[in-house]
Amino acid sequence: MENTKDISIIIPAYNENESLPELTAWIKKVLDEKGLSFEIIIVDDGSNDGSWDTITRLSKEDPDIHGICFRRNYGKSAALYCGFKEAVGRVVFTMDADLQDSPDELPEMYRMIVEDGWDIVSGWKQHRQDNKLTKNLPSKLYNATARAITGIKLHDMNCGLKAYDREVVKNIEVYGEMHRYIPYLAKNAGFTRITEKPVHHQKRKYGVSKFGMERFINGFLDLLSLWFLSTFGKKPMHFFGYTGLFMFLVGFVMTVWIIAAKLIHQGAGLPFRAVTDQPLFYLALLSVVIGVMLFLAGFICELISRSTAERNSYNIRSRV
Q1: DSSP string, 208-256
Q2: How far apart are CA 295 and CA 313, in angstroms?
Q3: Whether 155 contacts 124, CB under 8 Å
Q4: How far, in whole angstroms, is CA 109 from its chain's centroid?
Q5: Could you tell me the CA-to-CA distances from 40 to 88, 171, 267 in Å, in that order?
Q6: Tell me: the pLDDT tens digits for 195-224?
Q7: Is 283 helix (H, G, I), strand (E, B) or coil?
Q8: Most CB contacts within 10 A, which of 122, 216, 224, 310?
């Protein structure tokens, strides 16, 4: 499919009616000055403040502005998924609608993708304009955990301002609340040239933040899910089998130890307790049962994995 634009910009919007005209005008000014063709795709994620009316008006005034309207609030991942599906630009950007991301960063990030050959350029808000207690400190802890688990050395994994080579967004699927980990999804799909660029971060001008402290807990749980799926998604028996084998062996060794100790004491005429009177015996029995159950879970997961349509789905870079 032939590219028709240099840049596609995906903007998820939820109750950001006041900021949209200013943001789109700012984007247009920056990109027109650089002579870059572009499209802006605004995804209204079930807003109830008149955002869709504003998007409709902006679209009529400028053919480079397009809109998608959800019937209800589905979340940022759903908005990005639909935006990625529609994007036709050589480089695809994501940015928030709250004016905290600066469009002045777009030309340089575009150059880093096109000329330097990066797959992803992620924004890094070095100097955040958020509350230090509720945003900055939890964000630092969250990003440190993400770096340790994913192996991707980004300081700000959750920054909304990112640039992607078009091939990246066409070969990944964003779902649930996985928008925080698009670089990790891309890495698992084989797009490993990932870097970051310090970007200017501004204070929110209109409205209030739509994200609370619970996003850090949800983000950590999503990260564990992604790690498990990427590591054991097509070989679940490797996880359940090893774990089950370990639990079974622990229980077996404990059982043998208890029986052997009882027989030794009995043979030497020393006081001894019946095997079934010892709490350790029941812990050993529990360990054996859990080990067997994990083995069975592994077999069931293998059957499910081998029955899926995507079991032999691979990203192919090129053919000759």
Answers
A1: --S--THHHHHHHHHHHHHHHHHHHTT-HHHHHHHHHHHHHHHHHHHHH
A2: 26
A3: yes
A4: 21
A5: 11, 21, 84
A6: 999 998 777 777 666 555 666 677 777 777
A7: helix
A8: 122
